[in-house]
C-alpha cells in the first residue's frame, strides 16, 4: 500500500476508535494476557478469577483439549498426554533434548519423523509439535481476552525470552498464526518488564532486569536515554528456573525417604509428577513461612512425610542461586559496566519471590531491587502497553524499543569457519553487508550457509539456512565481488541476500530456521483448524477487509486534504471516484470484492503517492522537517 507508507507520523488509521489489543506472556510455566483499559495495564482473569494460566495442555480421552489449571491437576494421572513446559521444546529438534529419559512424553524418534525435522510428541490425539501445543495455550488466552473485552482482537504482542534464537522466535510466531492471532511484534520479556515499570518515563538510566521464571533465566541490561530503550546486553541460561528448585527439593525428599525405608521401590511417572508438585508447593510456601510439610502416599503404598525448613531450602539450592550470577556477570561485562553504573534492578518471574534470590541479587548489585509490581505479571503488563501503542490507541505514539540480537549471525567460509556478520548484542533493527569472493577459477555458483552462535567453527554453531547464488560470470578466483547483506527486523527475524556486484545477479532468503514449520505444514495445520470454523474464518476475513478498507479511505482522504494540490483536478476526481466505489463495496458482505476495490484504489493513487514522496523528500532535504522525522 504505497500511500499508507507515507502517512504523517503520529496519524493513526482510526483515531477515535479504541482498537482491541493485548499483550501475551507465553511462559514456560504460566501464561498471561493483559490489556490497557482506561489508560491502565491490567491482567485479564478467567471465569474463576485466575490470572495465571498454567502452560499445561492435556489431550483428554474424549478428544477434548484441556488447558491450564485443570490440565495441571490431571498431570500426574496422565503424564504422557499432559504436556507442560512445552516452551522448552519450541524451535527444537529431537537431538536438542538432552535428558529425554526424565521427560514423560513419547517423543517421536528421528526415523519416524522423516517428514519434518521438528520435534513431535506422540499423544492420544496424534502427533503434536510444540507449535501446535503452544497454539492451544494461545487460543485459550485469545478466547479469554475476546470474552472479557467483548470483541475481536486487532493484534497482539507476544513476549519471548531475550535468549531465544531465530528458530524459537519463528516457532512462537507460527503458534500465534495457528491460534488465529495477528502478531504485531515479538517483544523481549525484559524489555516488556521495563515498559511495565514505566522506566520509559524516567529521564535517563541503566537498569538490570533479572528474570527467573519456571524454566528460563534471563538477565538483561537496558539503557534509557531520551525516552528510548536500548538493550545493552542480554545473557542467561535457557535451562535454569524454578523447576530446578523443585527438582532439587524432590531429590532431597527422595534421599530422606530412601534413608528411612530399606527396600525403596523406584518411582513410576505418576509418583514422580506427584512428588514434583509437592516440591513446588513446599517451595512456594517457604517464601512466606518457616517450614513446609511434604506429605503424600506413593502408588507403592510408601508414605512420604518429611519437613523442609526455609534455611534448609536455602542450603540445598544455594548452587542454583549462584548459577544465575555467572550470566549476570557476563552481561555486565558485555555491556562494559560496573555495579555503580546501575540505577535500578527489576525482579521478574515467580521464582524471584524467594527471599534468598532477592537477597543474592541485592548483595550482587549492592542495592535493593524493584519489586512493587507482581514479578510474574510484569511481562504481560508491559506487553499490553506495547500492543496498545502499536495499534495506535496512544496519542503519544513514540514508544520506540531498541532490542539486541541475542547471538551472533554469520556465514560459513572455507574450511568450516564462521565469519560473523552481525555480532551479538547489536541493536535492532539492523542491516550489515560484507563482501566475499570466489574460491575457484571459473566458479559460477556460491553456496551460502547462515549460522547463529558465538563459536568459531560452523559445527559448533546452529545452522539456520542455506541458499545458492547462481549465475556468477566465470572469473579468476578472487575476482568476483559478492555482497552479502544480513537484515534483522524489529522482531529479531533474519533475512539474507547475496548480490554479485558486476552483473547484479541476486539471491535472497527469508530465514526459515531448521525446525521451523514449512509453509505447507502451516497451511495444512491451518486448514485442519479452520475446517470446523469455516464460518468464523469468513467473518474474520470480512472484518479484516473492512478494517483495511476503512484505514485506506481515511488516509487517502487525509492525503487529498493536505496534499491534493500536488496533482491536478482530474486526477483528484479519479481518486475520489475510487474512494466512493470502495465505500459502496464495503457495505456488502464480500471480502474478496472489498480487497479488490482496495487494490484498485491503491493503483489509482500510485502517481499521487510518488508525488507526495518527492515532496516529503525535498522537504526533509531542505532541513525543515528534521524534527518531525526524528523518532
Ligand atoms: P515462566 O516465566 O517460566 O512461565 P513464572 O514467572 O510464572 O514462570 O514463574 C514460575 C515459577 O515461579 C515456578 O517455578 C513457581 O513455582 C515459582 N513461584 C511462583 N510463586 C512463588 C512463590 N511464592 N515462591 C517461590 N516460587 C514461586
Ligand atoms: Mg516469564
Could you tell me the CATH topology label of the largest domain: Nucleotidyltransferase, domain 5
Bound molecules: adenosine-5'-diphosphate, magnesium ion
Rg over alpha carbons: 27 Å
| Class from helix and strand fractions | alpha+beta
Mean pLDDT over all positions = 83
- Major β-sheet annotation: 6 strands, mixed
N-to-C span: 22 Å
Q: Kindly provide the name of the CATH class of the largest domain.
A: Alpha Beta
Strand percent estimate: 15-25%
Q: Give the CATH H-level superfamily of the largest domain.
A: ATPase, nucleotide binding domain
Total strand count, please? Answer: 27
The 3D shape can be described as globular
Poorly predicted residue ranges: 1-16, 620-631
Helix content: 25-40%
In short:
This protein has 16 helices and 27 strands.
Structural account:
Helix content is 36%, strand content 24%. The protein is of the alpha+beta class and 631 residues long. The protein folds into four domains: 21-241 and 320-403, 2-Layer Sandwich (Nucleotidyltransferase, domain 5), CATH 3.30.420.40; 242-319, ATPase, substrate binding domain, subdomain 4 (Actin, Chain A, domain 4, Alpha-Beta Complex), CATH 3.90.640.10; 405-529, Substrate Binding Domain Of DNAk, Chain A, domain 1 (Sandwich), CATH 2.60.34; 534-621, Substrate Binding Domain Of Dnak, Chain:A, Domain 2, CATH 1.20.1270.10. The strands form seven sheets. Strands 1, 2, 3, 4, 11 and 12 form a six-stranded mixed sheet that branches. Strand 25 (482-488) and strand 26 (494-500) form a beta hairpin. Helix 8 packs parallel to helix 9 (355-365) and helix 13 packs antiparallel against helix 14. It is globular, with a radius of gyration of 27 Å. The two termini are 22 Å apart. Residues 1-16 and 620-631 have low confidence and may be disordered. The structure holds adenosine-5'-diphosphate and magnesium ion.
Amino acid at each position: 500500500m504505497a500511500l499508507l507508507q507515507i502517512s504523517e507520523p503520529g496519524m493513526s488509521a482510526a483515531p477515535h476508535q479504541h482498537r482491541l489489543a493485548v499483550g501475551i506472556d507465553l511462559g514456560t510455566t504460566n501464561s498471561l494476557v493483559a490489556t490497557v483499559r482506561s489508560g491502565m495495564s491490567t491482567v485479564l482473569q478467567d471465569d474463576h478469577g485466575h490470572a495465571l494460566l498454567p502452560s499445561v495442555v492435556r489431550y483428554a480421552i474424549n478428544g477434548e483439549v484441556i488447558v491450564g489449571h485443570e490440565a495441571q491437576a490431571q498431570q500426574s494421572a496422565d503424564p504422557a498426554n499432559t504436556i507442560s513446559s512445552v516452551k522448552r521444546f519450541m524451535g527444537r529438534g529431537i537431538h536438542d533434548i538432552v535428558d529425554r529419559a526424565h521427560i514423560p512424553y513419547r517423543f517421536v524418534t528421528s526415523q519416524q519423523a522423516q517428514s519434518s525435522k521438528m520435534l513431535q510428541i506422540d499423544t492420544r490425539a496424534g502427533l503434536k509439535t510444540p507449535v501446535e501445543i503452544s497454539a492451544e495455550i494461545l487460543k485459550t488466552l485469545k478466547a479469554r481476552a475476546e470474552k472479557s473485552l467483548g470483541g475481536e482482537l486487532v493484534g497482539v504482542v507476544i513476549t519471548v525470552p531475550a535468549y531465544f534464537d531465530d528458530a524459537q522466535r519463528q516457532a512462537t510466531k507460527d503458534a500465534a498464526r495457528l491460534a488465529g492471532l495477528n502478531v504485531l511484534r515479538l517483544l523481549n520479556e525484559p524489555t516488556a518488564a521495563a515498559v511495565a515499570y514505566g522506566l520509559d518515563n524516567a529521564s535517563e538510566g541503566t537498569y538490570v532486569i533479572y528474570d527467573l521464571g519456571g524454566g528460563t533465566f534471563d538477565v538483561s541490561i537496558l539503557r534509557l536515554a531520551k525516552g528510548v530503550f536500548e538493550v545493552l546486553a542480554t545473557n542467561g541460561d535457557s535451562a535454569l528456573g524454578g523447576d530446578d528448585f523443585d527438582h532439587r527439593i524432590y531429590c532431597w525428599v527422595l534421599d530422606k525417604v530412601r534413608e528411612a525405608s530399606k527396600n525403596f521401590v523406584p518411582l513410576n511417572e505418576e509418583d514422580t509428577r506427584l512428588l514434583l508438585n509437592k516440591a513446588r508447593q513446599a517451595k512456594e510456601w517457604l517464601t512466606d513461612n518457616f517450614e513446609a510439610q511434604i506429605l503424600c502416599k506413593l502408588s507403592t503404598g510408601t508414605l512420604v512425610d518429611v519437613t523442609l525448613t526455609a534455611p534448609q531450602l536455602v542450603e540445598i539450592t544455594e548452587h542454583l542461586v549462584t548459577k544465575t550470577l555467572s550470566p549476570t556477570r557476563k552481561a555486565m561485562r558485555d555491556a562494559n559496566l560496573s555495579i555503580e553504573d546501575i540505577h535500578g534492578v527489576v525482579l521478574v518471574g515467580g521464582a524471584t519471590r524467594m527471599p534468598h534470590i532477592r537477597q543474592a541479587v541485592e548483595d550482587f548489585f549492592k542495592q535493593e531491587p524493584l519489586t512493587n509490581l507482581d514479578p510474574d505479571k510484569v511481562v504481560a503488563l508491559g506487553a499490553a502497553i506495547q500492543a496498545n501503542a502499536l495499534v495506535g490507541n496512544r496519542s503519544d505514539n513514540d514508544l520506540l524499543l531498541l532490542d539486541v540480537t541475542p547471538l551472533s549471525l554469520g556465514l560459513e567460509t572455507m574450511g568450516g569457519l564462521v565469519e560473523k556478520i552481525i555480532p551479538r548484542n547489536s541493536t535492532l533493527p539492523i542491516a550489515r553487508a560484507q563482501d566475499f569472493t570466489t574460491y575457484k577459477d571459473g566458479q559460477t555458483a556460491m553456496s551460502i550457509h547462515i549460522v547463529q552462535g558465538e563459536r568459531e567453527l560452523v559445527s559448533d554453531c546452529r545452522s539456520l539456512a542455506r541458499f545458492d547464488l547462481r549465475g556468477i560470470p566465470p572469473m579468476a578466483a578472487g575476482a568476483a565481488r559478492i555482497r552479502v547483506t544480513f537484515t534483522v527486523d524489529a522482531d529479531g527475524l533474519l533475512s539474507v541476500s547475496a548480490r554479485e556486484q558486476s552483473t547484479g545477479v541476486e539471491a535472497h532468503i527469508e530465514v526459515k530456521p531448521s525446525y521451523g514449520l514449512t509453509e505447507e505444514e502451516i497451511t495444512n495445520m491451518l486448514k485442519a483448524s479452520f475446517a470446523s470454523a469455516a464460518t468464523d474464518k469468513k467473518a474474520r476475513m470480512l472484518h479484516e477487509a473492512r478494517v483495511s478498507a476503512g484505514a485506506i479511505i481515511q488516509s487517502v482522504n487525509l492525503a487529498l486534504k493536505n496534499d491534493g494540490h500536488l496533482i491536478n483536478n482530474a486526477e483528484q476526481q479519479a481518486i475520489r471516484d475510487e474512494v466512493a466505489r470502495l465505500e459502496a463495496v464495503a457495505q456488502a458482505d464480500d471480502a474478496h470484492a472489498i480487497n479488490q476495490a482496495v487494490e484498485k484504489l491503491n493503483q489509482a493513487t500510485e502517481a499521487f503517492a510518488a508525488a507526495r514522496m518527492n515532496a516529503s523528500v525535498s522537504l526533509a532535504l531542505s532541513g525543515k522537517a528534521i524534527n518531525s522525522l526524528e523518532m
